[in-house]
Amino acid sequence: MSPQKSLCLLLLLGLLLPGCVEEVKRKPPRVAPDFSLMGLDGRARRLSDFRGRAVLLHFDAPDSPYAASEAAQLSGIQARWRGRGGQVLWIDMGEGLDQARRDFLAHPVPFPVLADPDSRAAALYAPRGAARRLGAEDAMVGANALVAPDGRLAATRLLSVGGMRRDLDWMDGRMAAMLKSGAARAWQVGPRQVAPGGTVELREKVVVRPWMILARDGGGLAPLSLESSGDGQLQVEGTQVPDGSLEQVEGVGGPVDALSGAFIVVVEVQASPLARPGWHSLGAVLNYQACDRAGCLDPASLPVTLRINVFRPRSAPSRPRA
Fold this sequence. Notes:
By secondary structure, the protein is an alpha+beta fold.
């Protein structure tokens, strides 16, 4: 470990060293630099393999005196957000794969640890100013970066005077804000009118990117469905989900029938003969489970509103008597 790296780590012991810490205030690059590193399991992983997830990159070495506490806090973040589209990656700086395996035997973690022996991947994320003052490797000791599901570099935070726990709390909050919208969006298109006693097929456009959701039950996963209790005047009678394509999901036995991109779900609604004329708002919930080829998120629900206009057809004019 270089002298500058050691001095930066001593910051948390109370020895303040001006210039060792920095919170990046410049606008980050639009796209997070991709890299390929070997994991402790001997499997090579690229950052782009996690596209569709919010990825927290933690840059440090396990010989840090704070490695155990960092691992515990990062494990909590992984447990909190893994089922909702979050992913933690520890980038192990300055060590080969064999040494990294030995170091992490002391504190195993539930997320991938990727060996970066020459710290080249870490250097890709070093801000220019800090890299000039400290060198790209030393600037990234204890740093964190957050990559958005679409691959944008959303935030980079170097080791701050508040310490690692505060930095990870900050990143945890950013990840929460990023993931709150879920994997699917939906809105109504097409016909919206029905006569009392009649039926109408509403069209709900669903967009899922870059995830896929299950069109049919399979592998113990939750399929796409729409539920509504009606309002006493309008009642959902059924839904039609389009056919998907067969996709493989890691950890699921056999291919699953999945949908992605934009598609239409048809919702059949029955109006009571006594339905009040005018616009009605029918509350419903779209249930789904989003997956990618690496695994699935927890089942989720998306509230939707079905807007329907009940109209009374005009009576045909009576024919004059002969």
